[in-house]
Amino acid sequence: MLTDEQKELQALARDFANAELRPKTAEWDERRDLDDEVFEKLAESGFLGMLVPEEHGGLGFDLATYVLVLEELAWGDAAVALSVSIHNGPVAGLIVRYGTQEQKSEWLPRLASGQCLGAFALSEPDAGSDASSITSTAARDGDGWRIDGEKRWVTNGARAGVVALFARTGDDALGLFLVTPDADGYSVGEREKTLGLRASQTVSVRLDGVQVGADALLGAPGEGLQYALDALDLGRIGVAAQAVGIGRAALEHATRYALEREQFGMPIARFGAMQAKLADAIQRLSGGHALTLEAAEAWQMGQSNGARQGVAGVTAKAAIAKLAASQAASFTADEAIQIFGGYGYMRHYPVEKLLRDAKGAEIYEGTNEILRRIIAGEILRDAGDRNS
After folding, report:
1. Which SS3 state, helix, strand or coil, does residue 349 take?
2. What is the Cα–Cα distance from 102 to 114, expressed in whole angstroms?
3. What's the average model confidence in pLDDT over 172-200?
4. Counting Cβ atoms within 10 Å, is residue 79 exposed (0-12), middle (13-18) or buried (19+)?
5. pLDDT at residue 277 in the model
6. Average model confidence (pLDDT) for the chain?
7. Phi, psi of 306 (to 5 degrees)
């Protein structure tokens, strides 16, 4: 059950999405970019500091409240929700968990206020879900580090003020660094032309001898793989929330159209085939929503008791939530197009965009094929533990 405070914050986020995001979403998609003004408004509303503690200028939300807000933002515009999720989750979240007091004091107030936007740089041309395959290197150089390599699919990469970046610090070790894009040797490539989430700034990044100080290292120099896995768990819960928001938007458009569109002298909402589509969609979306909240609660508990492994652990629950929610979103958006019929296939109507956006949720932060492997691995781990 949601608390009264959670319901109030959920309603505030929906009002924001309805007023500030929905009127612009088609324009942003067509233009392939977001207005700078929307980030100012997100900051004013506190949505850029949801996971930042109050002592550092944030709202200090628990993760369940965070995903409720994120779902509403995705209902308004998925590209905005993706930017907010990356900024809050893998960037601010990692600094909160692993940063020194000096790093927290330097970065968290700036992230919460919107003074700078956060980006996350893990993937590479030959390293996606397998973070252990990263080839970017960070070599000791005096008191600091020299970073070389290439990163792909960096969300917020062209707009960011700080980038949480992973690089190899040894043969079997990764490090996590806070890099500013104004550093010499840091260069941003062309924007990717994506199927959906077209307004999101997704770019490649080159690192040619980027020099950073010792204070750029976040946490221990050889613990980056564990930090990456933590970030992926948190990111997947965020993607699940985004997917549910996308799916809800598609279902609402489809329901409204089914009530208005008449064929054979009656609204098509009275046809059994249309009703079945709506019922199947809400069933799947409700499951995705519930699993997302369950994963968020597991993450919150995992911060204190470290419960990560097994089907009951946060890694499996995050993967299950993203798998279920992303499939529900794609199913719902696809069925919404069918309900719209020929109009659904037209760019003038909103549901084709929602299908394109939903497809992204099945891919980024770990494809659904990878998630099935993770989930199965945790099932087998539990079975092995019981049989040992």
Report:
1. coil
2. 19
3. 93
4. buried
5. 98
6. 94
7. 70, 20
* Pair 367, 327: CB distance under 8 Å: no
Is the confidence at residue 223, as pLDDT, over 80? yes
Give the side-chain half-sphere CA count within 13 A for 36: 5
Q: Would you name the residues annotated as active-site residues?
A: 365
Q: Check: CB of residue 231 under 8 Å from CB of residue 192.
A: no
Backbone angles phi, psi at 24, to 5 degrees: -105, -10
Share of the chain above pLDDT 70, in %: 97
Domains of the chain: 4-117 (1.10.540.10), 119-218 (2.40.110.10), 225-387 (1.20.140.10)
The pLDDT of residue 91 is above 70: yes
pLDDT over 80 (residue 386): no
Residue count of the chain, please give it. 388
Query: Residue range 345-352: average pLDDT?
Result: 94
Which residue has 């781990």 as its token pair?
381
Q: Residue 114, SS3?
A: coil
- Distance of alpha carbon 64 from alpha carbon 68, whole angstroms: 6
Residue 363 identity: I
Phi, psi of 279 (to 5 degrees): -65, -45
Is residue 82 a contact partner of residue 155, using CB atoms and an 8 Å limit?
Answer: yes
Tell me how many degrees the CA angle 69-91-239 measures, rounded to the nearest 5: 45
Q: How many CA atoms lie within 13 A of 204 on its CB side?
A: 11
The three-point CA angle 178-48-227 to 5° equals: 40
pTM: 0.94
More confident residue, 132 or 294: 294
Q: Which of 276, 287, 268, 288 is nearest to 344 (CA)?
A: 268
- CA-nearest of 110, 107, 375 to 236 is 375
Predicted pLDDT of residue 387 = 60
Residue among 244, 253, 250 nearest 284 (CA): 244
The C-alpha atoms of residue 261 and residue 256 are separated, in whole angstroms, by: 9
HSE at residue 91, side-chain half, CA atoms within 13 A, is 35
Task: Give pLDDT tens digits for 286-327.
Answer: 999 999 999 999 998 876 455 667 888 999 999 999 999 999
Helix H or strand E encompassing 199: none
